[in-house]
């Protein structure tokens, strides 16, 4: 039994609405913190949360307490830290030690954002770096970017790899079959899952897939919601003469994702830049063969378990898909490597390393 109970405030706005990268990170962090540390209390702070919308966390656990920002934040005994999990939001007014997770710098490093938007994001990032006692980066690549583009003090940055939740594991053929039926997937398929935007290089994926159209490839299933500025997948598929082989499912609830990943012939993720690339790790944990990018953090995550290609080279993406589809022994080998590699990245390990940071800062 500890002599003193500490309290930590964690930004939880990402827990509302559709699951994305930051919300998955926040969900896994809080869920596992509450399990591995039973005596400390975790206050989930909402600076932005729609009223009456159900969140992702079960607040009935004794050590998880929610507190919306339009209610006064009480002077809680033992409150040590405010942790912004990536939305770069203001925290409680009273002075606390601050930890900020900065997932990536894609918005300012890639050419897909306007200059006005880039300036605004750069200012928010600079302020977060300045006001935080510790920056958590989800990969060595993100740490390098923070050092290079913001001159952040190296001793202020801790790398904590994100982790995959326990729900991601190879599903039975029955579960995969039920999910395929639910989404009217009638043929073998390759899978992409993520937000549909220019950064994820979905256009390049479609163009690479179209080079296989005369070779009777499996269908290409694309799952994920679209940005307001994103292109029309159906229209592009028609232009590439592959409309009958491309299926866009839109947003998929988390409960269906493991079975969808488990049933895929290949998980293809040719992103131009990632801070961590959690969907790649989730697919690997489900035993999917992975083709992904050779840039940013992806080599750190995938290692030698998948095939890594230049995301800007359409021919190489297409050739990698063709190579894996033609070799069943390679597919089996890649499945095995995916499962083994994914074991190094657990959500429980991520939460434990983050809690150690909380304790270290609290002790100072």
Word description of this protein:
The protein is α/β, with parallel strands linked by helices and 364 residues long. Helix content is 38%, strand content 16%. It contains 13 helices and 13 strands. A seven-stranded parallel beta sheet has the order 3-2-1-4-5-6-7, with helices on both faces. The two termini are 22 Å apart.
Summary of the model, kept short:
The chain is an alpha/beta fold and about 375 residues long. Helices cover about 40% and strands about 15% of the residues.
- The N- and C-terminal alpha carbons lie at a distance of 22 Å
Shape: globular
Classified in CATH, the superfamily of the largest domain is Glycogen Phosphorylase B
Quote the beta fraction: 15-25%
Rg over CA atoms, rounded to whole Å, is: 21 Å
Secondary-structure element order, N to C: EHEEEEHHEHEHEHEHEHEHEHEHHH
Q: Give the CATH architecture of the largest domain.
A: 3-Layer(aba) Sandwich
**CATH topology term of the largest domain:** Rossmann fold
Main sheet: strand order: 3-2-1-4-5-6-7
Count of spatially separate domains: 2
The biggest sheet amounts to:
7 strands, parallel
Specify the structural class. Answer: alpha/beta
Low-confidence stretches: none
- Helical content stands at 25-40%
Q: Provide a count of the helices.
A: 13
Integer average pLDDT:
88
Using DSSP, what is the number of strands?
Answer: 13
Oligomer, anyone? Answer: single chain
What's the CATH C level of the largest domain? Alpha Beta
